Amino acid sequence: MKAPFDMRKKRYAALAFLSAFALAVSGAIAFADPPGSSSSNSEAVITGSFSDECRDFEADAEKPDGKPKDISYVELHYADGRVVKDEDVNSPHYEIDEGPGDEKTHVFVKSGTTTERFDCDGNGGGNGGDDPECSDGVDNDGDKKIDHPEDPGCDSPEDNDESDDPKQPECSDGVDNDGDKKTDFPDDPGCESSEDDSEAPNPECSDGVDNDGDKKVDEDDPECHTDGDATNPDSYDPRDDDESNGGTGDPECSDGVDNDGDKKIDFPDDPGCESSEDDSEAPNPECSDGVDNDGDNKVDADDPECHTDGDATNPDSYDPRDDDESNGGTGDGAFSCRASALRIDGSPLAPIIGDPFEPFVANADQDPCVTDDGSSPLQGGSEQDFGSGSVKAAYATTDDSEGADANAGVAHVLIEGDPGFVEATVLDAHASGRCEGGQPVLSGGSTVATLNLNGNPVALPPDNEHVEIPLGPLATLHLNWTETTQTEDGEVATFRALYLDAGELEPATGDVIIGEAIADYSGNPC
Q: How sure is the predictor about 398, in pLDDT bands with cuts at 50, 70 and 90?
């Protein structure tokens, strides 16, 4: 589909903007001041004061040379626990006048790189700070009760501490704090003593849960009795915190109990047991846990990777204690992945910005696939202005947790001209590699929500089809570009959301790619 496009004077200027865009991005990334650096122009002298018993506050900021400097924000901390941050000051002066109930404990004020904290003494300078807390008109402990006799923490108007008396520990406060209908020590088994400040959690032998999978709970479980006799109420120990080793004291792998509920008991029948002395039947290894751990639609004995000879039809080679379903059998390959939000190849500015120029890339080495994040640190709704263009929320990530995944793109790209050359929104490319039926399979795709050329909207086809827009005889703009290449021992799949093939103009501009995702494999990783 060919869109209306003035190629006569704007073609060369617009393509030149791409190289200028790259230079601007490179300058912003390569030559920006490192985090934490500052100059004297960023510093500020900040003064502040309270009044009206800490209800009112005002602050002023100026540069070291005495000239006014805008306040970036003011953060108010109230006595009742509220925190209010005002980021719309935009003035060298700030003030706030409030009433009863709005007493403040302290305030942070920031201007430039300087942040100051101002603390109120409880009276805000109104009476010199001489009144005790229980007669100063301030809710000092944030319980919404002020002074004697309203605040229960005050013994008299002369008391200088409004805070309430220390509360009793949970295990001696007369309250059923954990809702188990048992109160305090020694009645609540969650209490170790009357000084214990937590009634919860209850030990395993009084928590109402079948912790060892033997379908017996608490007092009905022999392991919760000192003599192993569940019919003896005198031997029940509600404070026993291990339902699995009471009774006879035998390890789980030799106690005659299906402790993990997998219908297999003790060593050697339960694959979760390494020996008869093992005190845990769980968890089972990957080759006997009933889960398709490597995503090849084959589980445990049906998975060749769980057989020592790689033959799933041979019951004698099945190893239920193998704890890795992915590397038994014949799997001798690996997945690879790579993601890039922006790349420029063959730019005339290569001596300055590098070739390729690629500021946002994840797993640049590609092989093997590893989890990585090369996204721009400026995410969200902020535009990143690079002089002749801007990008919003550039991202590039890779993930090897389920095979191979790559994802890259930007929320918005604008390369400015007169009236504008290229503008596109919501560009994304994704690629993945998975095992299906014991074989590696690559898939992926890309999307572009909207496209404008020189301010003219271009109608895009449905279903994210490939779009090729000739830019005269020299260059071509591609949307949703895909390439699959067979290698000597594998395959490579590449997906690009936007691809400007500069063609014969490459010596002057370079190729530009927005949103590229690659997945590939060598050998058989499955």
A: very high
